[in-house]
Amino acid sequence: MDKLNTIKLFIYENKKKAILLCCLLVLFLLSTFLLFQKNNTSKNNVVYENLVEEKLEANLETNLKEEEIEEEKIYYYVDVKGYVNNPGVYSIEKGKRVVDAINKAGGLKKDANTSLLNLSMEVRDAMVIIVYSNSEINNYQTLQEKNKTTEEICNENIQNDACICNTESNDDVSNVDETSSKDEETSLDEANSKININKASLEELMTLNNIGESKAKAIIEYRTTVGLFKTIEEIKNVSGIGDTIFESLKDYITV
């Protein structure tokens, strides 16, 4: 009994100290909790910011790659005539075929006949493609049987770059002379048609295989800063032009 009274008396005398001690303990625990929460929030914010920055960088890199790919594309203008649904001049990406140009012109009409056309031929700039009708083809074949070669459906007076028909002459000697003459003219035309990489403009360089605007600018910059090309092989010194691209260029360039 005396001990119990002693304890009660001690608690009563130290009541204020006990309350103050409890308050300090609660305050300490509350401060610790708030500090812990703040650290977690900061970590989450840092992680979120890093994720956002990485996503923005990835999007930027993707956009740059898409722009570079788009920059390398080259388009030609092709005139499609005859028995197609929508005749006219169309913009066709370099590397496309005659069949792609016909499809872009709305496809073939019901009476169209493509037996004299090379549908797999690769298109070129300012190309003329004429799709004939069944009646025109039949008339042509009839005339061929009668050897009326002066009235051919494909001849010098009618430009049709996709036509594959050939003229046969009755005079063998004349044929040999004409073939030889045409071969010489073809060789001369090929030589004259080559692009001089020391003189060509930006637009002329972009007509070459695998040469877009960026590589054409690099060629011009090289010959301006380093000097004119002495051989066509030196074009491989230009940034971005290696052996593979050179192989596709060598027959079409000169110095």
Would you give an account of this structure?
This protein has eight helices and six strands, in the order H-H-E-E-H-E-E-H-H-E-H-H-H-E. The model is unreliable at 166-174 (pLDDT under 50). 53% of the residues lie in helices and 11% in strands. The chain has 255 residues and is an alpha/beta fold.
The gist of it:
This protein is of the alpha/beta class. It has helices at 2-13, 15-72, 98-104, 134-145, 172-193, 202-205, 213-225, 243-249, and strands at 75-82, 88-93, 112-113, 127-133, 195-196, 253-254.
Q: Which keywords apply here?
A:
single chain, 255 residues, alpha/beta, Ubiquitin-like (UB roll), DNA polymerase, domain 1, 3 domains, four-stranded mixed sheet, two-stranded parallel sheet, 8 helices, 53% helix
List the helices and strands and how they pair.
Elements: H1 2-13, H2 15-72, E1 75-82, E2 88-93, H3 98-104, E3 112-113, E4 127-133, H4 134-145, H5 172-193, E5 195-196, H6 202-205, H7 213-225, H8 243-249, E6 253-254
Parallel strand pairs: 1-4, 5-6
Antiparallel strand pairs: 1-2, 3-4
Structural class: alpha/beta
Proportion in helices: 40-55%
Report strand %.
5-15%
Spatial strand sequence of the major β-sheet: 2-1-4-3
User: Main β-sheet, in a few words?
Assistant: 4 strands, mixed
Number of helices: 8
What's the CATH topology label of the largest domain? Ubiquitin-like (UB roll)
Helix-strand sequence: HHEEHEEHHEHHHE
Q: Determine the N-to-C terminus distance.
A: 121 Å
What's the CATH C level of the largest domain?
Answer: Alpha Beta
Count the beta strands.
6
